[in-house]
Amino acid sequence: MAKPTIILATSNGIGMGHLARATAIAKAMQEFATPVIVSVAGGIAEIPSATGFQCEYIPGKTRGWMPRGKWDTYFRDRLVAIAQETGASVIAFDGVVPYPGFIASKLMDPQLQLVWIRRGMWQKNLLRFVLPFQSQLVDQVIEPGDFARGYDFGPTAGRNEAILTAPVSLFEKDKALSRDDARKVLGLDINRPAVLVQLGTGDSDVNQKMHAALSGLTGWKDLQVVLTKDPVDKNGASWAPDGLDIRVVRHFPLAHVLRAFDASVCATGYNGVHELLPAQVPTVFVSNIRGTDDQEARAQWCHDMGFALRADQSDLSNITATVRKLQDSQIRARLHQQCEHLPDPVGGQEIAKILYELVSKTKMSRQGPVNRLKRLLLWSVLRRAALIYRTINPHNVDDLVNREAPIWGSQNTAEDLHPLIKGSMRFEHLITGASENYIRRRKEIAQSAYGTPGPS
């Protein structure tokens, strides 16, 4: 009997949190189901060659590749098309907001089962007011657990419609590489100390935090500092302090090689916490206060419970001083030992089973005539609310867009995908082995969105 296909869709985000969770769930289900990952996040370029999963990149609204009024329909049509191509009956969407196009896919195909994977630990922003509507528009809400859930007092904490699971993580104790093997993979000296720093770059305040954190590592004898991005500003000028041996490494998933590091400095995002702490890497968390994720609450929990150190993200001198504590071997040993008491983050396995059970259910979709009308009305309210929210909090939209016919391809390596995803040319990505019917349908979708023909 052929394994069923389950689509794991994700929104964009500040980091790789949505994609990391989707990848962890996909890995957990591959024995009994075939995962297909689709995402508007550019980080999806890393996944196909690293995992072997079928993936498709969908350009997000902020790319500006089509009129904004057409994007929700475009996203809906892309989801329905790939569900029909792969025979999937379940689409799980991991994102803070279930896009109107995701919700509308059930209006197009009532047999689809829609699942919203909704992380907790929200800050109290305007999005909390549409939570009651969003939750009614999907067939199931799943909340991936959070080590710091005891400090969650945000708008999702008091709701009861979600199935709560254990935390989700790509780190697996029995599969992660040993210290020496991981260092060989990363090209690091086996005998010198090594620290991983993941704070992001770009905006001036983020660069300042990175500089402050790196300054706390100066003076650590023979240290190797590993970054995932070049420490340069938008003009190409380096803001890293002198005297550090800095290497830039691209490796996915980093969870497999975390034992290479003696310590880390990281933003307090979901996947950072749920990978570094189970790997028992002594860590200083420097929160990113943008977006919906309440990283400060998560960082405070990690600090209060003794699993990590929290730096004050608003105080550059405190960041430097807190990071400098990692040079103390006794502090590192204490943090390492405390992390042994954390439960295993097996939420990926739990969610994979929930999604498989949805596929296996034989009951008909709940969408009768009345339910369809209710769904349509709520969808209209949600879409209008999203437009209002983005008017108040607009995205930064890419400025340079080449209006020529899009490039089409089924590339599946990071080296090939990154330039296409980041480029100014519109790019239509196809899963490997796409059928002629699927390509024909994708041409129609592209024609409607761009006003240009698909591939010849």
Automatic annotation (TrEMBL):
It comes from the Bacteria. This is Glycosyltransferase. It comes from Candidatus Planktophila versatilis.
